[in-house]
Write a structure and sequence with these properties.
The complex is a heterodimer of chains A (about 400) and B (about 300).
Chain A: E1 5-14, E2 17-27, E3 32-37, H1 43-51, E4 58-63, E5 66-67, E6 78-81, H2 93-97, H3 99-103, H4 108-121, H5 137-150, E7 155-159, H6 167-184, E8 187-192, H7 195-201, E9 204-209, E10 212-218, H8 219-224, H9 229-234, E11 240-246, E12 249-252, E13 255-258, E14 266-272, E15 277-280, E16 300-310, E17 314-322, H10 343-349, E18 361-369, E19 379-384, E20 389-393
Parallel strand pairs in A: 3-8, 3-9, 6-7, 7-8
Antiparallel strand pairs in A: 1-2, 1-4, 4-5, 9-10, 11-12, 11-14, 12-13, 14-20, 15-19, 16-17, 16-19, 17-18
Helix pairs in contact in A: 4-5
Chain B: E1 3-4, E2 10-11, H1 16-39, H2 42-49, E3 51-53, E4 63-64, H3 75-108, H4 111-126, H5 129-142, H6 147-172, H7 177-184, H8 189-217, H9 221-227, H10 234-243, H11 248-279, H12 286-295
Antiparallel strand pairs in B: 1-2, 3-4
The chains are: A alpha+beta (about 400), B mainly alpha (about 300).
Chain lengths: ~400, ~300
């Protein structure tokens, strides 16, 4: 059922506007790839081109090595589910699901019997004879999925299929996709602008921006090893610190932090995910901050709380790190205690922009569970988990 | 005192009675008035058709008789009815697909071009039929166009704005992605046309066909002037009967003969939809009701 999908150097122009710029993407059989990008990034256009609903200005779409340029939509063996369920209003639920079989020439009775299997898969067998107008949004989307699966597609294309559903329903649908993958193992391309959805559904994420794939990698890679600052931002990274890379360290207002092996020397942005930072319990005002790798402990950064934003069960803590108070730990440097931060000056002049740098320092955002008892202006220490600092050349 | 605005927020200035209960009552009242507006003129017609003797100043007929209905069984009347049916049907058969094509063209063309096509297609509504016929009559005569063809040709022009408007409205809300979905589900373009587009546009098609049929069925001026007496339809019979005095019963019966068939067709088309809608969960939109009711046979 599943096939390998390749998009080779796909370009698409509308008049003088180029929407896709030589996009290449490979999806192995039975894998799920998410095309993640903001509105207008070209992800839906790419999906339509793969489906054959739109013709590329250049490039090729291949399935199992076969070029589909001359293959019409109906013979590509793909099925597409849109954000809107688009169930045919003149057919009831089971006849919607049986549509593909009927078009293939299957007799009505057999087509309906097959359709019932797929309705059972999406737990809607009891709704078979209902008119589609009587279904809820979530049920409609499940029927749309069943209809697409009943096509027995080589590749299943999902164009923001759950964007119109509420959070609870969305998670039910994610479970359903998981069940479908476990049972049928289709190759799936899902378009979404929701990074959480992409992370839950997909094995790999291709990040699109302005018609270009900026990075295609595993969920972990795109989150913690972003190729560019834009990728980091699209994946919800809140901390970008400009600086300079040399000798495997990023030098910035934070001080010197070890970065990934192979980082290019020169002007670079340091990416630190807010989830990779943790608050270090206070050890008293006179405690010395230990060295990072030299001491076998993660690097620490000292700063001053400049704001708190509740996310419900979690809290975003904004911490202003002054240039006068860079990393508490300076790898390979002296173990002298860092100068104390002047709380008053930080509060007065502290920038509140997330991840933005100011002349005097940088604001880092930390994602912590619960509601930490912090006060604005309070001096705290941050720890960088697993040395997850990632530097990319400045764009 | 508060009341609900359409948006659902309380309006301090609006009394509860008007805001919540008053509007439905007003709507019902206006609806009843509208029905009376349409039906009241038919009452004297019905009374005249069954009146034996009805003299001024009597409010109701003095005696009743069904004698006038015998005219309906006269071969000439039946032939005229068939001619009307043929004329209405021919006009509808030609004007309906033309209306669809016109609407598709207007939709496909960008901005001003689309609006220009709209304007051209709606133009016949702005021209009085009499003027249109007088202008075209001479040309048709010179070209030796047969009477029936000439009448059909002109009536199609008159019907075109109605059919175009019906399809224009339907296409405005038509979801093109239904066809995309059907294609990806393996339907070829012909199957998409038959199993998706036709059913989804069938409500508009039926409405357009019906309106175009009415244009041909009820026409008098064009049939009289272009047909030149060679084409006898029900309205022609009615016109000649009405031209003389003392035929009130006959005129009334012929009038009903012109009115009732389209009403029956309308009822045959609309009532099953209404009954089905009431019998199950209501459809989301009236258009949806039409689609489901009228296209069930056209589906799979």
């Amino acid at each position: 059922m599943s096939s390998k999908l390749e998009a080779r150097s796909i370009s698409r122009s509308f008049g003088s506007t180029e929407v896709l710029h030589a996009v290449s993407l490979t999806v192995p059989p039975s894998e799920c790839v998410a095309l993640l990008g903001a509105s207008g990034s070209g992800k839906s256009t790419l999906l339509r081109i793969i489906a054959g609903l739109d013709a590329p200005s250049g490039g090729h779409v291949l399935v199992d090595g076969e070029d589909l340029a001359m293959v019409p939509v109906e013979r590509r063996g793909m099925a597409l589910v849109f954000q809107k369920a688009l169930l045919f209003p003149h057919l009831n639920v089971i006849d919607n699901v049986a549509f593909a079989a009927r078009m293939a020439g299957t007799r009505r009775k057999e087509a309906r019997a097959e359709a019932m299997d797929y309705l059972e898969l999406v737990h809607l067998a009891d709704y078979a004879r209902r008119p589609v107008g009587s279904l809820s949004g979530g049920q409609e989307q499940r029927v749309a999925l069943a209809r697409a699966l009943a096509r027995n597609p080589r590749i299943l294309l999902l164009d923001e299929p759950f964007a119109s559903l509420d959070v609870q329903l969305r998670h039910t649908m994610y479970d359903l996709i998981g069940d479908i993958r476990a049972q049928l193992a289709p190759t799936i391309v899902v378009v979404t602008h929701d990074r959480q959805e992409a992370s839950i559904l997909a094995d790999t994420i291709a990040v699109l921006d302005d018609g270009r794939i900026l990075q295609h990698g595993t969920v972990h890679q795109v989150h913690y090893q972003p190729a560019t600052r834009t990728v980091n931002e699209l994946l919800g990274g809140l901390n970008t610190v400009p600086g300079m890379v040399s000798d495997g360290h990023h030098h910035s207002v934070l001080g010197s932090l070890p970065v990934q092996t192979g980082a290019t020397d020169g002007p670079s942005d340091l990416m630190i995910r807010q989830e990779a930072l943790t608050l270090v319990p206070a050890r008293g005002p006179t405690s010395r901050l230990t060295s990072g790798s030299a001491g076998g402990e993660p690097p620490t950064i000292k700063g001053c709380v400049s704001g708190l934003t509740s996310l419900g069960a979690r809290t975003l803590v904004r911490v202003l790190v002054s240039s006068e108070n860079p990393t508490g730990t300076r790898h390979g440097s002296s173990a002298d205690p860092p100068p104390e931060v002047s709380e008053r000056s930080l509060i007065a002049g502290g920038p509140l922009n997330l991840g933005n740098t100011e002349a005097s320092g940088v604001t880092l955002t930390v994602d912590v569970p619960g509601h930490p008892p912090l006060l604005s202006g309070q001096v705290i220490t941050l720890s960088l988990q697993d040395q997850r600092a990632w530097a990319v050349p400045t764009e | 005192m508060t009341a609900l605005r359409p948006g659902g927020r309380p309006s301090p200035s609006m009394p509860v009675g008007i805001g919540v209960r008053g509007r439905p009552v007003l709507r019902t009242a206006f609806g009843v008035l509208l029905v009376f507006w349409i039906l009241v003129p038919l009452v004297p017609l019905v009374l005249w058709s069954v009146a034996g003797l009805w003299q001024v100043p009597a409010v109701l007929p003095g005696t009743y008789s069904l004698d006038a209905f015998a005219v309906l069984a006269v071969p000439g009347t039946l032939a005229a009815a068939l001619s009307s049916l043929l004329l209405g049907g021919t006009v509808a058969v030609i004007a309906t697909p033309l209306g669809l094509m016109g609407a598709l063209a207007a939709q496909a063309l960008p901005g001003r071009c689309g609006r220009a096509v709209d304007l051209i297609l709606l133009l016949p509504l702005a021209v009085p039929p009499f003027a249109l016929v007088m202008g075209a009559n001479i040309t048709l005569l010179r070209l030796h166009v047969p009477a029936f063809a000439g009448v059909v040709l002109l009536l199609v022009v008159v019907a075109l704005p109605y059919t175009t408007f019906m399809f224009r409205s339907a296409l405005a809300t038509y979801e093109q992605r239904f066809e995309d979905v059907a294609l990806t589900l393996g339907a070829d373009p012909r199957q998409v046309l038959r199993h998706v587009r036709a059913p989804l546009l069938s409500a508009a098609t039926v409405r357009a066909f019906f309106l175009a049929f009415l244009v041909g069925w009820g026409d008098y001026i064009t049939t009289l002037l272009v047909g030149g007496g060679q084409l006898t339809t029900l309205p022609m019979l009615l016109g000649s009967a009405a031209a003389s005095t003392g035929n009130e019963q006959l005129v009334a019966v012929l009038s009903l003969a012109v009115i009732i068939p389209p009403v029956l067709i309308l009822a045959a088309v609309a009532l099953p939809a209404t009954i089905r809608t009431r019998a199950r969960k209501p459809a989301r939109t009236p258009a949806g009701t039409w689609v489901r009711a009228l296209t069930r046979k056209a589906g799979l």
